[in-house]
Every structure is written in C-alpha cells, then in structure tokens.
C-alpha cells in the first residue's frame, strides 16, 4: 500500500440503471493537490459524491489512509477528515454568513474533529466574510457565496478537501482570489481534489491531474508535464480535433 491519504480501485457508481463511473483507479497523497478535469457529464461530481458518501459505491474499493471505507455515511466521512465544497455551493438560504459557518463548526464539534481552522483564520483568508458576517447568504455575490461554501468545508477541519467547480460562473478577479487561498489550505497539510473545467487553471493549481471521459480515466500524470494534445485527446476522446 502506498502512502496515499485516499485511493480508489475499480470504483463504480450508478444512478439507478445508469452507470456513471466505470472502475476508477485514483490516488492522492497527503498535502497533494490533484485536479479532476473532463467534459460535462464525464462523472467528476459523481466521483466526489461517491467519495463523500453522498452516493453509494456500487463496486470497487475506496481506502482512506489504507483503511477500506467505501460506502461510508457522509457524517462519518467528515469525521475521518473529508469535506466537500459541493457543486452549486448549497448554502443555507435565509441564514447569515456566520450562521452558515457555525453549522459547520457545530458539526465538527459534534463529530469530534479538531484542527487549525477558526472563524478568525477564515476571516484572515477571506476578509469579506467578516465584513458580511450578519448578511443573509442569498444577498451575497456568487464569489462571496463560494467563499462561504469553502469556509464551511474548512471549518470541518479536513485532511482532504473536495472542491467541485469552485470557479464556475465567477469573474476572473474573484477566481484569482479564491484560488489564491488554496496554497494556504495546503500549507495546513490538507490535500485537495479540485474538479475544474478550466484546464489551464486546473493545471496551475495542481500537482497531478486526472481526466475523465464518460466515466473512465483517460489520462493521468503530473500537471506540469501533460501536454495540451494529450489533454485534448483525453478530454474529447480519440478523433476529436485539437483545440
Ligand atoms: N442525479 C442523477 N441522476 C441520474 N443521472 C445523473 C445524476 N447526476 C448525474 N447523472 C449523470 O451521470 C453522469 C455524470 O454526471 P456528473 O454530474 O458526475 O458529471 P460532471 O463531470 O460533474 O459534469 P459537469 O461538468 O456538467 O458538472 C452524466 O451522464 C449525468 O447525466
Ligand atoms: Mg459536475
């Protein structure tokens, strides 16, 4: 067994009769950032959901620090140190920024997770969250909401942070701000799986990447070394023109 914080072998996931993942082999080491790229519908969110226990693992193995955990309930995954910034953010509408964050702090406390993240540290990372502490989340901009969503995951004190398209729909300046926070997260020793549609950004922000196509891994390698051609091929499949 390698020193992976999390690994999967032959992971299969389904939605009813529809098979979304066809045997994913994946691993991520402690402190590593791994990007997951691929076209719409490739299975990226499904993979994160399966890791987080939000979707059953139909077959295959998931290990966390060597221990098999496939199909573990979400609360237990949080307890083991996995947190997700979900697709579409999923904040509690009608609640303030701080109350949203407190839900995560309470969850971490209930599950006995301890770590270095506090409201104070989060405010240092994203100062706007302090300024907007009493503001209902639905009045925030998309970028500010994304910061709350990231903050909520960090307050679960994760060893492994799953980020599902944290740049989606945001202005370039805000994307830069959000991505600038990731090195600080990693400095805590937290590993990051980054689902990202922007391939350039995905490469920049990761050590290694995986490309999914129709539920299968079509490419994996060090982000600095995979070529544009290889990515294009893996992203669209065999015969598609290189963009
Ligand atoms: N709740 C669901 N019920 C049935 N099928 C689903 C469900 N969610 C996703 N799928 C299907 O599973 C496949 C993988 O979807 P998934 O959302 O994981 O893709 P993705 O790579 O995250 O795409 P995107 O970039 O659009 O977010 C797609 O064919 C999708 O239509
Ligand atoms: Mg998705």
From TrEMBL:
Ranges where the ABC transporter domain occurs: 6-239
UniProt KW Heme keyword: no
CDD domains: ABC_TM1139_LivF_branched
Keywords: Amino-acid transport, ATP-binding, Nucleotide-binding, Transport
Pfam families: ABC_tran (PF00005)
GO biological process, one term: L-amino acid transport
Claim: Nucleotide-binding is one of the keywords in the record: yes
GO molecular function ontology, one term from the record: ATP binding
Matching SUPFAM superfamilies: P-loop containing nucleoside triphosphate hydrolases
Entry's family note: Belongs to the ABC transporter superfamily.
Protein name in the entry: ABC transporter ATP-binding protein
Taxonomic lineage from the root: Bacteria, Pseudomonadati, Pseudomonadota, Alphaproteobacteria, Rhodobacterales
């Amino acid at each position: 067994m390698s020193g992976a914080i999390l690994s999967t072998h032959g992971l299969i996931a389904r939605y009813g009769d529809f098979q979304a993942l066809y045997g994913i082999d994946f691993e991520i080491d402690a402190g590593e950032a791994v990007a997951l790229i691929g076209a719409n519908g490739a299975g990226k969110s499904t993979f994160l959901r399966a890791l987080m226990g939000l979707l059953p693992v139909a077959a295959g193995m998931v290990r966390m620090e060597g221990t098999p955990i496939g199909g573990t309930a979400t609360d237990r995954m949080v307890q083991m140190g996995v947190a997700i910034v979900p697709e579409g953010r999923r904040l509690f509408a009608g609640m303030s920024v701080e109350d949203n964050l407190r839900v995560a702090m309470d969850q971490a406390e209930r599950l006995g997770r301890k770590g270095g993240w506090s409201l104070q540290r989060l405010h240092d990372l994203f100062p706007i969250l302090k300024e907007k502490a009493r503001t209902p989340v639905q009045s925030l901009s998309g970028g500010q909401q994304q910061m709350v969503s990231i903050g909520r995951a960090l307050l679960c004190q994760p060893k492994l942070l799953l980020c599902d398209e944290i740049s989606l729909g945001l202005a370039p300046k805000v994307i830069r701000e959000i991505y600038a926070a990731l090195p600080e997260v990693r400095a805590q020793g937290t590993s990051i799986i980054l689902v990202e549609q922007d391939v350039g950004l995905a490469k920049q922000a990761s050590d290694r990447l995986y490309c999914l196509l129709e539920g299968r891994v079509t490419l994996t390698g060090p982000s600095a070394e995979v070529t544009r051609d290889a990515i294009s091929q893996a992203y669209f499949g065999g015969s598609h023109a290189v963009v």
